[in-house]
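S1.2 Input.
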Amino acid sequence: MTAPALSGGVNTCGRIRPAAATVVVGATLVLLSACSACRIVVPDDPTFVVASYNLENLFDERANGREYPEFLPEAGWDADDVADRLRGVASVVEAIRPAPDLLVLVEVEQQALVDRLFEEFLVDLPLEYRCFVRGPDSATGVAVASRYPVAGVRALLARAGNTPPLRPTLEVRVRLPEGDLIVFANHWKSKLGSAAATEPLRRAAAGLVRRRLDDLAESEPDLAAIVAGDLNERGREGQLTGWAYPTALVDRVGLEDSDPPWDTPAFRASRRFLPVVRDRALVASGDGAALFDPWQESGYSGSYWFFGEWEQIDHLLMNGAALDGPVFAFERFFTVAAVGAVDDGGRPLSWTEDGVSDHLPVVAAFRLVGR
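S1.3 Output.
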């Protein structure tokens, strides 16, 4: 069955050498491409590293009608600016150690910029399989670059009430010799306009990812999954807002028995969306759809500095099979404060402040079981 195309929505995916395919984003949940016959030689390395990095609006120098005003040629944005930004992003990615085997990039205008980043500035990082999605009316999209072959891609388009489709989630199935991994690359709605007013949009995105996770858990219970990207929400959002309203992420640990009790209508409603926990044992035991949130365990303060406080809004949430499964065993989570990208306090410096981005990369290192 052919799904109706959404105007302006573009998704591309493929192995960059020798070729890449281009398709248009279709309905809410559509299988877009697969390359199960692809084969790439990978090192016999027991580590697998996943990173997510919000690039703070990476645009090229050409106008296509969706740019923000400061990135238009008439505003002075030119090829030199683009090269400087790509060079800065590359310097941060190069500071990730061990080097990433899979990299999620948020707020990038188009696939061509992702390709240029690797082909001109990160030539020694062999992430040859790259996918990208941008919504029909979005200025930027999300990308996934992988060392391992991409075996399938889906675009998940959520709606909330009468609003236009939200920014799509890019679902990518990566094929390792030992088994598959599903990565959901996200950029959820920001809190611009107030956290409460925009929360329904984040709940809609979370609900769609939750339904996909539930489907995958039923059909492939041992499949590892990671929910990555800028979710514009903290894992403990509900507690930190006093459960004034239901939240997209809900930290379940101890809430039912807490004092005062958190068994409020807002908490009960939040459990329908994307529950996260900080207790490894709960996730490893396969407790429902709970995902492990490594922020609290890591000891890192945050990846985004906002109005004098750290925010933990960039995520690498993982299911039980990614945490401790037949293929993956999670080892550690950390942020990267690269020289030239942070101030003296380790806080991210925006590219407008002679830095690179107003976010830090978040990184999760896994051990490949049996390798």
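S1.4 Remarks. Helices lie at 79-94, 111-121, 195-219, 237-240, 265-270, 280-284, 295-298, 320-324.
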